Amino acid sequence: MITPQRRPRLAVHKFSSCDGCQLAFLNLGEPLLDLAERVDILHFAEAGPVDEAAEVDIAFIEGSVATSEDAARLRGIRERSHYVVTIGACATAGGLQALRNLNDGAAWIEGLYARPEHIDLLADSTPIAKTIKVDLELWGCPVNGEQVLGATQALLAGHLPRVDHSAVCTECKRQQTVCVMVARGTPCLGPVTSTGCGALCPQLQRDCYACYGPAVQANVSALTTYLADTGMPADEIARRLLFINNQAEPFQTAGREWQARVIQRSGGEETS
Amino acid sequence: MNDDKHTGRIHVPILARVEGEGALEVSIREGRLEDLKLRIFEPPRLFEKLLEGRSAQDVIDSVARICGICPVAYQMSAVAALEAILGITPSSWVARMRRVMYCGEWLQSHSLHIHLLAAPDFLGFDSAPAMATRHPDEVRRGLRLQGLGNAIIRTFGGRSVHPVGVCPGGFFRAPDASAMAALRARLEASRDESLALIDWVAGLPFPEDDQEFVSVSLRHERDYPITEGWIVSDRGLDIPIDDYEQHFREFQVPHSTALHALLDDRPYLVGPLARLNNNLDRLPAELRDRLEATGIRFPSRNMFHSIIARAVEMHLALNEALRLTEDYATTTAPHVEAVPRAGVGFGCTEAPRGILWHRYTLDARGLVESARIVPPTSQNQARMEEDLATALTRFGLERDDDALRLHGEMVIRNYDPCISCATHFLDFHALRG
Fold it and tell me: Which residues bind Mg(2+) per the record (chain B) (predicted)?
């Protein structure tokens, strides 16, 4: 519980990840020092403090569940933390590495390691919320630093922030960014992807590749039907949906449906 | 040895201030080092497999996710390998701007390492915020330089972690003139700060710890190597990047999910110190003079001097970014179109932590058939263990556990190991002999 009697306590925990979302803190610059003056950061291995067993007000979690020991570790974190906040695509949706869930993960390990018996790796990479209750999920690969700082301040003030999950398209309109799909014919996942990034890709005149996960009420079937009608092969549609946030719905179901169409076709009747 | 024959085990269960998850285990019996293991238990993410069947652009967007601290390095090694297959020679504008973007990553990653990870050890603090209470100006200068590196990356890629601007053939969009002018003004204003940083870092108290090791880096005909070159060592190795696999071998050890690597069956060093040792003559003359004025001699055999190499490379990166954008003109053609084709290609660039080698095979549709990625930290693992054994023995195994633990951690941090990187790709190679 956050009480006025003592300084708030934070922890940043790492699971299977690239460390990029922890940089939301380490890249803050001056605000990092301000934060460190206002709160006690008890566990943040990459920044120095190591005390995984500490009781904290807010535990930030980067990374997905990937090894046989992760579930027990997570339950301990849940017990000792008032708020649990996932930061980024790995913690919130299993991450890019969850592509192994859709394939033969054991064969992948055997393909890469001479002695797979020394490798402790679960067949599936899963989001944190599959193992413990999560109070707030911040999406994105990587998570947006300002969003993390804003959420931290809201939680320290005692309330859960609202996160905008409207589509990237709405962000482009707000910024008056020219639509890459309309103006250039570039297939874009912006209509079904949550904003949060600031619509970076369309600003750079490229397609959104859905690294912030699904938007609210994402109409994936309308978009993918349009992509197919304008000439995109089924396997490419499947690949686009099954990418950074491949475990997130409705991307996963729709992606697997498009994959199944490819398999059916290569099964023999039609090729076009 | 003295009479007080020390026996015991030191176990550092979570290494702090490194990227990723590792641990150090040391066994001492009767005053002698019996066993030492740098355990890496970061779970692998099997990138080389998940790239199979993906397009060239997917590769560029995926490999960034191997490392949040050096995504540009991954994108640049990948795009070089892919362009070799696709038969694309980037324009000189693209080649220069890629080098500028890469300079941003050196600046960001090196400053993060110096200020947030390494310097607290030298000055007796356990974190940068703690160090900032006594050295506020130095820490703030470091954070500013780190922020400047991030600003360079953002200028080309929209964001500094997993930037989105790189494509086969160049960039999706060229920064406009006003964005570049604003960036250049910030760089100009920080020139003196990166020079002052070199002097500050050179004044840190360094342990005397010269060791024998082989320095491996890229080499370029004119420039300090960043985005291109061939592979050299200070023992005479001189090979094109395509021949890497004929000289270097990777193998699995039970205590690490990252492969170890050897050159001619010996450990070797990659990273800033190896790079500087091999490329002193590629520094601008004024920077070489400044380095000499510190009184610390290079090439250096003391791994603790790698923090100086990082500071030197930060100043070099800042100046390179300014030099290469001096007459900046934006372009409406920042990339050439890539046409899918089959083949094998190699890419090798100097990531902040050392050479990062990629090999891809593409099919006729331009989709990946196989991928191999050799990150710097896995190359340094064998050298790190060798260094730890020597350094801890010299330091004095009779010292108490806390002192040995701290010294061991400092030795490890000299390599700025990126454990997240090292654990994500492991190509299977049988252990010979």
Answer: 48, 373, 424
Task: State the ipTM, two decimals.
Answer: 0.95
Which class in CATH covers the domain with range A9-156? alpha beta
Count CA atoms within 13 Å of residue B379 on its CB side: 26
The reported pLDDT for the residue numbered A3 is 56
Residue B269 per-residue DSSP state:
B
Q: How much is the pLDDT for B2?
A: 43
Task: Indicate the pTM of the whole model.
Answer: 0.95
Instruction: Choose the mutation target among A65, A141, A147, A204 for the interface with B, i.e. most B CBs under 10 Å.
Output: A204
A25 CB-near residues (< 8 Å, 6+ apart): A12, A32, A35, A44, A47, A145, A148
Cα angle value B50/B51/B55 (rounded, 5°): 140
Cα angle for residues A119, A121, A125 (degrees, 5° grid):
155
**Domains of chain B, start order:** 47-383 (1.10.645.10)
Side chain identity at residue B152, one-letter code? I
Cα Rg of chain A (Å, integer):
20
The identity of residue B266, as a single letter, is R
Note whether A27 contacts B146, CB cutoff 8 Å: yes
Burial class of B242 by CB neighbour count within 10 A (0 to 12, 13 to 18, 19+): middle
Q: What are the structural domain ranges in chain A?
A: 9-156, 168-266
Q: Calculate the average pLDDT of chain B.
A: 91
Confidence of residue B255 (pLDDT cuts 50, 70, 90): confident
Tokens of B381: 């693992």
Assess A97–B contact: CB distance below 8 Å, yes or no: yes
A52 contacts chain B (CB < 8 A): yes
Residues B137-150 pLDDT 10s: 999 999 999 999 99
3-state secondary structure B134-201: HCHHHHHHHHHHHHHHHHHHHHHHCCCCCCCCEECCEECCCCCHHHHHHHHHHHHHHHHHHHHHHHHH
